[in-house]
């Protein structure tokens, strides 16, 4: 375990389903991230939360909805996904000194492998 | 816009060989990370470099800030080193390279 825990590890969902991915960090970090890794593509940043405030949304479709209730937990709510959304979704956390600061102590979770059918 | 490239894309080596993976980036950065992604998807941060060289066990990472280039070396490679190695330039957010898939054969 890296200190960043993601659940579930695997998820199969239909296009009309609603599901949520969960990420929890026990490192005392103040920034959390969602990344998407599709087959044969580099990691893509989806959302950034610094000090529980969303600071980045990289043109992610609205069928992905993040939630950060506190600095230790991050959710990604999924609804009406498409088969092309099938990918590995990775959560990460880090420490930043301010909302625009360079992160350090970057730590990834093990990811949730999502399949949309 | 910073672009990060890696070479080679795929690498197969025999156990015991010395391995080098290269990373280049297009704009000045404050630091560069090397990450290891295992077949199951989990990612481990290996190094964060802002200058010079770092060593951890059989892994060595170097960076040349002027040339915008970094290398990851693995000495005495082992099958358990088989993974995807990703370099990422660090600013407020990472820009990731495409990864190098390494297979070490026994």
Account of the 3D structure:
- The complex is a heterodimer of chains A (117) and B (106).
- Helix content of chain A is 0%, strand content 58%.
- With 117 residues, chain A is mostly beta strands.
- In chain A, 35% of the residues are buried.
- The model of chain A has no long low-confidence stretch (mean pLDDT 88).
- Chain B has 106 residues and is mainly β.
- Chain B is globular, with a radius of gyration of 13 Å.
- The mean pLDDT of chain B is 90.
- The termini of chain B are far apart.
- The A-B interface holds A 2, 33, 37, 41-43, 45, 48, 56, 88, 90, 92, 100-104, 106-111, 113 and B 30-31, 33, 35, 40-45, 48, 86, 88, 90-94, 96-99.
Low-confidence stretches of chain B: none
What would the principal axes of the Cα set say about the shape of chain B? globular
How many strands of chain A?
A: 11
Subunit organisation of the chains? heterodimer
Query: What's the order of the H and E elements of chain A?
Result: EEEEEEEEEEE
Measure the end-to-end span of chain A. Answer: 30 Å
| Helix amount of chain A | under 10%
Number of helices of chain B: 0
Mean pLDDT over the residues of chain B: 90
Biggest pleated sheet of chain B: 6 strands, mixed
Largest protein-protein interface: A-B, 24 and 22 residues
What characterizes the major β-sheet of chain A? 7 strands, mixed
SS-based class of chain A: mainly beta
Radius of gyration of chain A: 13 Å
- The pLDDT mean of chain A sits at 88
Give the number of DSSP strands of chain B.
Answer: 11
| Strand percentage of chain B | over 45%
Stretches with pLDDT under 50, minimum 5 residues of chain A: none
Output the number of helix runs of chain A: 0
**Rg of chain B (CA only):** 13 Å
Give the SSE layout.
The complex is a heterodimer of chains A (117) and B (106).
Chain A: E1 4-7, E2 10-13, E3 18-25, E4 31-37, E5 44-50, E6 53-57, E7 64-70, E8 73-79, E9 87-95, E10 104-108, E11 112-116
Chain B: E1 4-7, E2 10-14, E3 19-25, E4 31-37, E5 43-49, E6 52-56, E7 59-64, E8 69-74, E9 83-90, E10 94-96, E11 100-105
Parallel strand pairs in B: 2-11
Antiparallel strand pairs in B: 1-3, 3-8, 4-5, 4-9, 6-7, 7-8, 9-10, 9-11
């Amino acid at each position: 375990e890296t200190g960043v825990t993601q659940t579930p590890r695997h998820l199969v969902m239909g296009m009309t389903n609603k599901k949520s991915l969960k990420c929890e960090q026990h490192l005392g970090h103040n920034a959390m991230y969602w990344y998407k890794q599709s087959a044969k593509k580099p990691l893509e940043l989806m959302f950034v939360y610094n000090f529980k405030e969303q600071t980045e949304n990289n043109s992610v479709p609205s069928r992905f909805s993040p939630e950060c209730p506190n600095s230790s937990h991050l959710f990604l709510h999924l609804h009406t996904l498409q088969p092309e959304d099938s990918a590995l979704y990775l959560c990460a956390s880090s420490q930043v000194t301010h909302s625009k600061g360079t992160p350090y102590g970057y730590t990834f979770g093990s990811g949730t492998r999502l399949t949309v059918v | 816009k910073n672009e990060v490239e890696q070479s080679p894309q795929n690498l197969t080596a025999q156990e015991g060989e010395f391995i080098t993976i290269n990373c280049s980036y297009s704009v000045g950065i404050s630091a560069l990370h090397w990450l290891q992604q295992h077949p199951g998807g989990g990612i481990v941060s290996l190094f964060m470099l802002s200058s010079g060289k770092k060593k951890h066990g059989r892994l060595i990472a170097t960076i040349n800030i002027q040339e915008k280039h970094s290398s990851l070396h693995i000495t005495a490679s082992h099958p358990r080193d088989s993974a995807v190695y990703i370099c990422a330039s660090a600013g407020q957010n990472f820009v990731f390279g495409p990864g190098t898939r390494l297979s070490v054969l026994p």
